[in-house]
């Protein structure tokens, strides 16, 4: 049975939560492989709305094993808060949730450094959420991170913590001129978090590889999107981890041969949160219409998302670096009100036409998008679950977008609830 990786094909916020929830029905295991609680997956079940930040979406289905892999950075306070809220709504974790003992922890000094660094940048801000994600990954790469397993060795934990806090406080006080963090409070708080989470912690790499050997169906979910990947995104306006499909191998401890399918999630238009280049952004009434109709506000921070036309250079880039075999197109219904709809097919910069996405920010920041224009359908597509029932012009838009992007559509979402979905192919849903 396949290991299916779900990855965002744009700048995140593509609607991965709904698609993952839909595919989880036929999965045995749902595993999160990177990111932190700066990301949010929104799932609507009936009249209930769930916004998940660290807990994999599979928790909303009974009998599914959910894994937080070693590639995720965990704020244990945020995780426990999320778990408590879900428990109040009737969801259980014992036997259903596994946390990698090698996952790195976000510490209060990471958050303090994140906020202070952003404030100092002024107009050159990256647009982080201020939740400590970047500094936690920096410590991981710098070989001074604190991992989940460290919480169960109090003496070793205190030694590591004291060393890190000494360095962090020097930066906070002498460079950023803000208040220091307190060793004893952090030490006691994190020992308490460890006691509460201990029963869920284990070697998830062993578990994953044993599940693969037993031919279990595994759904690997990423956070953010390909163009926020630290290697393949619009650097430096990116996240601090490998959001692309390759991150599933390192973030879960599985070999690349285990991945048999990659599905990209593509919003029918494009959005971005925070700073960074966005060639097709519409800072006009079109952008405002997309934001309003699409409720484009961050699931984690509530920040309004920047909105614009679909960009096939962005999508083709994601298809290449992820090896995507198919895509799920989300929020098609948001376009229902438009008289005409544009698709970006190239960038022009200083007389040169770019038909593939360049990596130079100087080009992305000042290029002129080249569009084709399709007629809008001016009919409601909300809730349609059969492809042939879509308006003819809506089908034409989907087909043109996918042809230009070089990938086949597998799923089309026409609303937030599970049943407002068109299934064209059945990746990971076959018996």
Structural features, described:
This protein is of the alpha/beta class and 431 residues long. The chain has 2 domains: 3-95 and 203-423, Adenylosuccinate Synthetase, subunit A, domain 3 (Adenylosuccinate Synthetase, Chain A, domain 3), CATH 3.90.170; 104-200, Adenylosuccinate Synthetase, subunit A, domain 2. It is 32% helix and 21% strand. The protein has 12 helices and 20 strands. It has helices spanning 16-24, 76-88, 108-121, 133-141, 154-175, 183-197, 204-213, 247-252, 285-294, 312-322, 361-366, 392-405; strands at residues 3-8, 29-32, 41-45, 48-52, 65-68, 73-74, 97-100, 104-105, 201-202, 218-221, 259-267, 270-272, 306-308, 310-311, 326-330, 340-349, 352-354, 368-375, 408-413, 421-423. Strands 9-7-5-2-10-1-11-15-19-20 form a 10-stranded mixed beta sheet, sandwiched between helices. Strands 14, 16, 17 and 18 form a 4-stranded mixed beta sheet that branches. The chain has a two-stranded antiparallel ribbon with strand order 3-4. A hairpin with a 2-residue loop joins strand 16 (340-349) and strand 17 (352-354). Helix 3 (108-121) runs parallel beside helix 5 and helix 10 crosses helix 12. The longest helix has 22 residues, at 154-175. 48% of the residues are buried. The mean pLDDT is 94.
